[in-house]
Design brief:
The protein is of the alpha+beta class. The chain has a single domain, classed as 60s Ribosomal Protein L30, Chain: A, CATH 3.30.1330.70. Helices cover 23% and strands 35% of the residues. The strands form 2 sheets. It has a 3-stranded mixed β-sheet, with no helix packed on it. It has a two-stranded antiparallel sheet with strand order 1-2. Strand 1 and strand 2 form a beta hairpin.
Length: 100
């Protein structure tokens, strides 16, 4: 995801493009203000095949929601991630709410 460049780490261009695409999709579906405070977030990943998809490789997804669903992904105090398989379907569903 990150590549070294002049002593710093930069986001790879392909990752940046994917993050921007996810952010555009989130903006199209969520019209509210970014949530503030401690958050509980659930993420459902649907894949078309049973290939080895890791449920913990969602950092880019969470980062791409910054300023849209939440102010910063550091607000997430509880994260639930599930995956399922449905032939011909790739989908991500995210639900975020303030922690009670």
């Amino acid at each position: 995801m990150y590549k070294p460049f002049n002593g710093r780490f930069m986001v790879d261009a392909s990752v940046r493009e994917k993050k921007e695409a996810m952010a555009w999709e989130a903006r199209a579906q969520y019209r509210g203000l970014p949530l503030e405070g401690d958050l509980e977030v659930s993420v459902w990943l649907t894949w078309p095949t049973r290939r080895n998809h890791d449920v913990d490789n969602i950092k880019s997804l969470l980062d791409s929601m910054k300023g849209i669903l939440w102010v910063d992904d550091g607000q997430i105090v509880r994260l639930i991630t599930e995956k399922s398989y449905e032939k011909g379907t790739s989908r991500v569903d995210i639900r975020a709410r303030k922690r009670q």
